[in-house]
Amino acid sequence: MKHSRLIIARTMITLFIALSLVLTGCSDSGVYNDGIYSGEGSGHHGKIMVSVTIKGGDIDSIKVVENPENKVLSASAFETLTKKMISTNSGDVDAISGASDSSRGFIDAVEDALSQCRSGELVKSDKKNSDLIVQESETVQNYDIVVIGAGGAGLTAGVTAAETGASVLIIEKMPAPGGNTLVSGGEFNVPGSWKQKEEGVEDSIALYMEDTLKGGDYKADPALVSILAENAIDAAIWLKDDIKLIFDDHLFQFGGHSVPRALFSKGGSGEQMILKLIERGESLGMVLKTNTKALSLIQGTDGSIVGVKASNLAGQDLRFNASKAVIIASGGFGSSLEMRNKYNADYGDEYMSTGQPGITGDGIKMAQDVNADVVGMEYIQTYPACSPKTGILSYVADNRFFGAILVNKEGERFVNELGRRDTISRQILAQTGRAAYLLWDSNIESISGMSSQYSSEYNELDADKLICKVESLDEAADFFGVDINTLKASVASYNKNVASGEDTQFGNPKKRGIIEPPFYLEKVAPSVHHTMGGLVIDTDAHVYDKDGNKIPNLFACGEVTGGIHGTNRLGGNAISDLLVFGRIAGTNAASN
Length: 592
Ligand code: ADP
Description:
alpha+beta, globular, binds adenosine-5'-diphosphate, 592 residues, 35% helix, 5-stranded antiparallel β-sheet
C-alpha cells in the first residue's frame, strides 16, 4: 500500500514536470534551454530527486523533490550547493565536506537535469564561489560564554547557559551542526524514568552506576559516574518538558546494562534532539556560527581562559572574547588517524570510523596547549556491527538486540551477541576475513522493525550486496559463501538451547530462535566508534591542568572529556553523559 502510494506520487511528480516543460517551452538564449527539468542522483541513503528551473537560459532555482538524507546535514549542504550553482550557473561545484555523499547525490541530480537542457558550451559565470562565503563584519566579538563544537554536548551546554540569560556563542567547524550526536541512534540511559515505571522495570541509580563502572572495567572515576547516574533523570525531564523532545514509546536494553533503561528519541536518531536544541537556543538568543573553526584558547596574564581564536571559510582571523567562560565540546578523536595512532596504534589504520569527519580531537589539543591534563587516552572503542564498506554503524544490525546471532564464514557462532562491544569487536576481527555475519528471521524482524525503520540503510546494504533476505538458510549461506552444513548445525543447536530456556553456548540472554523464513543475513565488521579518553574534569565540569589545578574559566563536556566511561562506554551512555555534563557545564559557566 505504502509502496503503491510512493509510485503514484513519483508518477505525479514526473507528469507535473513534463507538463511544466510543455507549458514553459524552450529558449536557447543562454547556456540552457528554458523549462523545468528533473534529475536523479544517489546520496548516502538512497535516491535524491531534484527539479531545476531554467529561465532566460540560466539556472533560476533548484527544488529538492525527494530526499532520503539526514535532514540537518543535507539542509545546510543543499542550501550552500544551490547558492553556488545559481551563482556560477553550473552544476559543477565542489561537494561540502562532512556531507560528501549527500552533496555528491545532489550534484549528480542537478547535473542529470542540466544534461537534458544544455544548449551550448558551458561558460561559467564570473561570479566567484567565494562571494557566497559569509564574512564577519567584526573580527573581534564579545560574549559571556563561547562554546566550541555544536554537537549534543555543546548545544546542551549552550542552551542551558542561554536559559540563565547569558549571551552565548557556539562555533562549529563543519558546515552543519550536530556532530556525532546527529548521526547517533538518539538513545540514552535513565534509571527511574517514566517509561520504566510504566513497564514495571525495577532500576536504581546504584544499579546504573555499578553497570557503568563494571562496563568500563572499574577504570572510570566513580565521582563522575555517580553524577551521571544521579542526574540522568533530570536531564531527561528537561528534554521532555523544556526542549519538547518527543520520545519513542519503547525502552531498550543495551549490552552491559542489567535492565532495559534506554529512552529513545522519536525517529530513531539524534536528528530531532539536535534540531530542537537549536530551536530552543535560537529562541533564547544563542548565536550559532557554522564553518567557524576554533584554533586556540586565549589565556589572560593570570592563566585564566578569556576567549577563543578562530577562523572561518572567508579566511578571517577571528577573536571571540568570553567574559565568563569557554566550554570545550568538540567531541572525541575517532576520525583522527594521527591521534588514534599516537595514543593506541591497535586502533590505527586498519579501522574505519563511525564518526563524522570533524571529530579530530581539536579541543583536546587546544586545551593541552594551555597545560590541560588528559586521562584514559588509550581507551578506544570499536562498534561491532558496521558496514564493512563504509565503516558506518549499521542500525539494521540492531536486530542483534532482538535475538539475531553472529556466525563466521565457517558457519559457527563465536561470541555472546549481547556481550560488550569491545569483546564482540575483537572476536569478529579474529574471524576469517575480519568480518562476521548476523542472522535473524522474520519473527525477530517483526518484533524489531529495524529493516523498515532504517529502510534507506537497508536499501543501501542491499545495493552493496551486504545483506540478503531469502527463504532458506541454504540461500543465505550461498549468498556470502558461508559453510552451509555448519551454519545449519549452529542454528539447530542454538534453537534447541533457546527452547530449553538457556543459551548454554554463549549465554545470549535474548533467547529467540531463528526459525521463520524469510531469513536475513548481513555482513558486518567493527569500526572505531568512541574515544573514552579526554580532558580531566571534575564533577562541576571544570578542566584541570597537569598540576592538579583548575584552569580558570575553562569547562568541558561530552566526548572530549575523559574518566566517565573507563575502558569502555556502554551503549546509550554517550548521550546521557553529554546531557548531564552539558547541563552542568552550561550552568557553571553561566554562574562563573
Ligand atoms: P559530543 O557528543 O561530545 O557533543 P559530537 O561529536 O556530537 O560530540 O560534537 C562535537 C562537535 O564539535 C562536532 O560537530 C565537531 O565538528 C565540532 N568541532 C570539532 N572540532 C572543532 C573546532 N576546532 N572548532 C569548532 N568545532 C569543532
